[in-house]
């Protein structure tokens, strides 16, 4: 069965999450907990704005009507997103391969002159990890989300870079440059990761999936369980939850790296809304790419620049950009430019008049 993504008929919250009992590996007298695990979940519906949740669900509904996707188109989309995801996720961490070079390495097996062996291996490893992710979701729809899965994914990402740390929690304390956050001591990492799995088990069905995936991503990088490869692992883990729900894979783009770091830092201080919006916009971008490829021409909403969009409303280009950044206007970022549709602008204007 081909992964129709991918996911064929998405189901809501099908993942089982491995339970955690403190006494399994630690004495019961250990009572301390990580602060970020204690967030009040009573008002989590406020984390994601309706102005972004609504187009997410409407776009997913449209995508579901176009399923099952033909094998040819599915393969094209999968390869496109494998290259995009691999390029951007590695580039965020300093890999110097361009988008085209990443395609050559992972799809054509070409060695790029002037680029390091490490850059090549990171691309190949990430592609293998992505293939593992797709296969896991396709063949094990009710798979158990566990520490074993986390370590297996990390091992694939790091395997040819440093076998000594692949799939193993760090045994040294680390510091993250450019941030005030100091990850927990190495001795605490196994407990913190069990605690994270426990948090996920308790809250997976309580939250909208984009909120949950974004928060899980932050909590994982907050712990920083591995010596290297935490960001790449976190972005793949986040996508396991999103893809199980039926969304296409969400790509955090290299061009948004500074904003990405900013919203993660804001989450360090307990403000998750910017991170949730950031992830939601990435999901919406992927949905729109899928719909653009799959929707018949006569039914498409064609993307336009914000400069063109000003013709269909009384707002300036700068104000439309502000609305897009805040998630109030349906828009996606292509390279460094916000794009929307005439229909999206008209919907926004109409809703403002109500």
How would you sum up this structure in a few lines?
The protein has 354 residues and is mainly α. The chain is built from 13 helices and 5 strands.
Keywords:
354 residues, Fic-like fold, 2 domains, 5 strands, mainly alpha, globular, 3-stranded antiparallel beta sheet, two-stranded parallel ribbon
Description of the structure:
By secondary structure, this protein is mainly alpha-helical. It has two domains: 16-21 and 44-300, Orthogonal Bundle (Fic-like fold), CATH 1.10.3290.10; 302-354. The protein has helices at residues 50-65, 71-92, 99-108, 117-139, 147-158, 189-203, 209-223, 230-245, 257-268, 273-294, 306-309, 317-325, 342-353; strands at residues 16-17, 144-145, 303-305, 332-334, 337-341. The strands form two sheets. It has a three-stranded antiparallel beta sheet.
Could you outline the blueprint of secondary structure elements for this entry?
Elements: E1 16-17, H1 50-65, H2 71-92, H3 99-108, H4 117-139, E2 144-145, H5 147-158, H6 189-203, H7 209-223, H8 230-245, H9 257-268, H10 273-294, E3 303-305, H11 306-309, H12 317-325, E4 332-334, E5 337-341, H13 342-353
Parallel strand pairs: 1-2
Antiparallel strand pairs: 3-5, 4-5
Helix pairs in contact: 1-10, 2-3, 2-4, 4-5, 4-8, 5-8, 6-7, 7-8, 7-10, 9-10
């Amino acid at each position: 069965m081909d992964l129709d993504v991918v996911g064929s008929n998405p189901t809501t919250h099908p993942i089982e999450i491995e339970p955690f009992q403190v006494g399994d590996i630690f004495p019961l007298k250990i009572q301390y907990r990580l602060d970020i695990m204690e967030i009040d979940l009573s008002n989590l519906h406020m984390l994601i704005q309706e102005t972004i949740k609504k187009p997410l669900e409407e776009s997913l509904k449209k995508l579901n009507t176009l399923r099952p996707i033909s094998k040819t188109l599915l393969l094209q989309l999968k390869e496109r997103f494998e290259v995009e995801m691999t390029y951007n996720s590695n580039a965020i961490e300093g890999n110097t391969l361009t988008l085209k070079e990443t395609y050559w390495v992972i799809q054509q097996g070409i060695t790029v002159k002037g680029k390091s062996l490490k850059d090549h291996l990171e691309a190949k490893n990430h592609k293998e990890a992505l293939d593992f992710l797709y296969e896991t979701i396709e063949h094990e729809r009710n798979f158990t989300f566990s520490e074993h899965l986390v370590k297996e994914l990390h091992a694939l990402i790091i395997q040819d870079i440093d076998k000594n740390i692949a799939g193993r929690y760090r045994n040294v304390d680390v510091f993250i440059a450019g941030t005030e956050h100091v990850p927990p001591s190495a001795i605490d990492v196994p407990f913190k990761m069990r605690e994270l799995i426990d948090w996920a088990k308790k809250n997976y069905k309580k939250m909208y999936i984009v909120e949950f995936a974004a928060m899980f991503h932050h909590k994982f990088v907050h712990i920083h369980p591995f010596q290297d490869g935490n960001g790449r692992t976190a972005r793949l883990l986040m996508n396991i939850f999103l893809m199980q729900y039926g969304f296409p894979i969400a790509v955090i783009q290299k061009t948004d790296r500074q904003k990405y770091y900013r919203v993660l830092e804001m989450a360090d201080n307990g403000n998750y809304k910017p991170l949730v919006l950031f992830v939601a916009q990435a999901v919406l971008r992927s949905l729109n790419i899928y719909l653009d490829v799959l929707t018949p021409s006569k039914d498409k909403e064609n993307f336009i620049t914000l400069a063109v969009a000003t013709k269909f409303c009384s707002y300036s280009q700068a104000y439309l950009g502000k609305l897009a950044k805040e998630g109030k206007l349906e828009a996606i970022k292509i390279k460094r430019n916000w794009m929307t549709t005439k229909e999206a602008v008209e919907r926004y204007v109409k809703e403002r008049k109500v």
